[in-house]
Design a protein that fits this description.
Layout: E1 4-6, H1 7-14, H2 18-27, E2 36-38, H3 39-45, H4 55-67, H5 80-121, H6 124-146, H7 152-163, E3 164-170, E4 175-179, H8 184-190, E5 208-213, E6 216-218, H9 228-233, E7 235-237, E8 241-243, E9 247-250, E10 263-274, E11 279-285, E12 299-304, E13 307-312, E14 322-328, H10 334-341, E15 348-355, E16 368-373, H11 377-390, E17 396-402, H12 411-420, E18 424-430, H13 433-444, E19 452-457, H14 459-471, E20 479-483
Parallel strand pairs: 3-9, 16-17, 16-19, 17-18, 19-20
Antiparallel strand pairs: 1-2, 3-4, 5-7, 5-9, 6-8, 10-11, 10-15, 11-14, 12-13, 12-15
Helix pairs in contact: 1-2, 1-7, 5-6, 5-7, 13-14
Length: 484
């Protein structure tokens, strides 16, 4: 029989996004019951669904894995202990269902025997009515048994529950999946959620959360000691535990950039690679037990020797250990000169921060326009990756204006987003000026006021674009800008 699924689980099973399903619900193509959908309705909309993983979904997952600095690989199985516990839970549920079916079958047999006894004692007319009722029971029972086989989505859901655990957070109702050997903290960050944490190594206790329902298992050692009250209330450490099965946790999430403390971390250069003749990708890696906590779009101060610079982070906090920066060649910038001419793999770079409030408004229901001028793409890239991991915006449209054709130094990445994601658009512009930029946006979207807009670039670019937007009547409250 059809079963109800959450949007997150349904989207994962049919290989699409939550946003796509929400649009189907809004258009009336997909019925919804308190935010849940049935497997039967999913099969009606996606009749070609197979038990094998959907290729489009796999492509999106690969893009996310690349964006988060992780090697694209085959999905890892959970640990043997967790896998066996999940299988045990499913076998227990199956045994309970079998027992219920046997009870119902016995009830129907008793009812049938009772009706036969009544028929023997009844008048001819009453006997005909009882036999008709028996026939109707047989017909209804046959109908139920004839459709009792699980549909493809239900089978896939059973497989998904073995491979991954679904976690819901209270009071926000945010949710995510825990796959492979990930801890709860790693999975939450990978889903773009700003949960509280500190050392991520089991020492500080800042990532503790209360288990409302479900079961967790310790997968990493930790030195933090819970008080007796915390033990009795069911607290756990996100950084040291994984979910055995579906889980509900109570915890507070970061509300704004002001909630994140300043940190100072000595990182090492993982790689310096060319993104073009004039731009280098500086890839820093922090120690495993001392990672930078930040929000996408924020900046930090980097120091190497005597040279320092404040730069936007060009990566998502989904992978907080790997930090990316886009360094533009500038003979007058000591830090940029160090990156292009002196620094190499393994060299130390001190990171201090994070700074700024150029962060995603995760509580806004509006679609999003991202506008980057030249290397202003760096913080925009982090915001886009964060928005992709959250999977809540109906539309994401990136406008990247460059001073020269070579200025779109990560154009292939932007095109890959377009190819893999139904709700992503990309427009590359070359030296059209602020007025030309806004004209292009108005041509694509008649009502710009329906969007939130994130703007990043040089001071001159941001100033001119802000002025042009104001002339179009764009609400200042829906514009967030930063100078890079």
């Amino acid at each position: 029989m059809p079963q109800l699924l959450s949007l997150s689980r349904a989207a994962r099973l049919v290989g699409t996004s939550r946003v796509a399903l929400q649009l189907k619900i809004r258009s009336g193509d997909l019925p919804s019951f308190d935010g849940m959908v049935t497997t039967a309705d999913l099969l009606r909309l996606y009749p070609d669904i197979r038990i094998e993983e959907d290729g489009g979904f796999e492509q999106v997952m690969q893009i996310k894995a690349h964006a988060f600095g992780k090697r694209v690989r085959e999905r890892m199985l959970p640990s043997q202990e967790i896998l066996s516990q999940r299988l045990f839970e499913q076998s227990t549920e199956l045994a309970d269902l079998r027992a219920h079916l046997q009870s119902y079958h016995a009830m129907f047999e008793r009812l049938r025997a009772h009706m036969d006894t009544l028929a023997e004692r009844a008048t001819p007319s009453a006997r005909e009515a009882i036999w008709a009722l028996e026939a109707q029971f047989d017909q209804e029972l046959g109908s139920v048994l004839g459709t009792a086989a699980a549909d493809a989505v239900s089978v896939m859901d059973d497989m998904l529950r073995v491979m991954s655990a679904h976690v819901t957070l209270r009071p926000s109702n945010h949710d995510f999946f825990v796959e492979g050997n990930d801890t709860l903290l790693e999975a939450a960050l990978g889903a773009g959620l700003a949960v509280n944490y500190g050392c991520s190594n089991g020492n500080c206790g800042l990532c503790k959360a209360r288990v409302i329902s479900g079961q967790v298992q310790k997968v990493r050692p930790h030195d933090y000691v819970f008080s007796e009250a915390e033990k009795n209330q069911g607290y756990t450490l996100l950084c040291a535990h994984a979910a055995v099965g579906d889980l509900v946790l109570e915890l507070l999430e970061t509300g704004s950039a002001d909630d994140i403390p300043q940190q100072q971390i000595v990182t090492r250069i993982k790689a310096i690679s060319a993104l073009g003749d004039e731009v280098r990708l500086l890839h820093l890696q922090s120690p495993r037990n001392n990672r930078l906590r930040f929000l996408a779009g924020q900046s930090v101060t980097l120091t190497a020797g005597e040279a320092s610079a404040q730069l936007p982070i060009a990566s998502c906090p989904c992978d907080d250990r790997n930090l990316h920066f886009h360094i533009v060649r500038d003979a007058n910038d000591d830090f940029a000169r160090q990156v292009f001419e002196v620094l190499g793999t393994g060299d130390a770079v001190t990171v201090f921060g994070p700074w700024g409030n150029f962060v995603l408004r995760t509580d806004s229901p509006r679609p999003i326009l991202f506008v980057a001028g030249d290397a202003g793409f760096a913080p925009i890239k982090g915001l886009i990756e964060h928005a992709l991991s959250l999977d809540t915006a109906e539309l994401l449209h990136l406008y990247w204006q460059a001073s020269a054709p070579s200025g779109h130094y990560l154009a292939n990445l932007c095109r890959s987003w377009v190819e893999a994601l139904d709700n992503f658009r990309y427009t590359a512009l070359v030296d059209v000026g602020a007025d030309g930029l806004v004209e292009c946006m108005v041509k694509d979207h008649a009502d710009l006021t329906a969007f939130d807009l994130y703007l990043a670039g040089s001071g001159a670019f941001v100033g001119a674009a802000t002025k042009a937007l104001a002339q179009q009547g764009f609400p200042p409250s829906q514009l967030l800008a930063t100078v890079t």
